[in-house]
């Protein structure tokens, strides 16, 4: 595991997924496996962010993507009534399609207060 650079906080998500929170850029870089546990931990991190801030989620280094992780993250985002604007990067077409099935268009920024109008399939 590499050493964090100045201003970077490294947290561990589940057993094999890492999140690098770079405070200046508000970038969350995920790697390893992304599953439901990772999604819940990411949701906790997002809920701690200031409303109106912008957080970029970079999934380009995720080696394994559980469909349950997508479902869990979609539900978490729909449950955020206030919080940061979330911008997705590095998703594969399959994950984009799954988020769309859950009522989230991740090809544009997700704004929590706009999600009150989103209907999620349960």
List keywords for this structure.
disordered N terminus, 122 residues, alpha/beta, Transcription Regulator spoIIAA, 28% helix, 3 helices, five-stranded mixed sheet
Short description:
This protein has 122 residues and is an alpha/beta fold. It contains three helices and five strands; from the N terminus they run βββαβαβα.
Please give the number of β-strands: 5
Distance N terminus to C terminus? 38 Å
* Percentage beta strand: 25-35%
**Fourth CATH level, the homologous superfamily:** STAS domain
Q: Which structural class should the secondary elements be placed in?
A: alpha/beta
Average per-residue pLDDT, rounded, comes to 77
- Tell me what the CATH architecture is: 2-Layer Sandwich
Level of helix content?
25-40%
Assign the CATH topology.
Answer: Transcription Regulator spoIIAA
**CATH top level label:** Alpha Beta
* Main β-sheet, spatial strand arrangement: 1-2-3-4-5
Count of discrete domains = 1
Tell me the series of helices and strands, N- to C-terminal.
EEEHEHEH
What do you see in this structure?
It is a single chain. The protein has one domain (8-117): Transcription Regulator spoIIAA (2-Layer Sandwich), CATH 3.30.750. It is built from 3 helices and 5 strands; from the N terminus they run βββαβαβα. It has helices spanning 36-47, 67-79, 93-101; strands spanning 8-13, 17-22, 27-34, 54-65, 85-89. The chain has a 5-stranded mixed β-sheet, with helices on one face. The longest helix is centred in the middle third of the chain and has 13 residues, at 67-79.
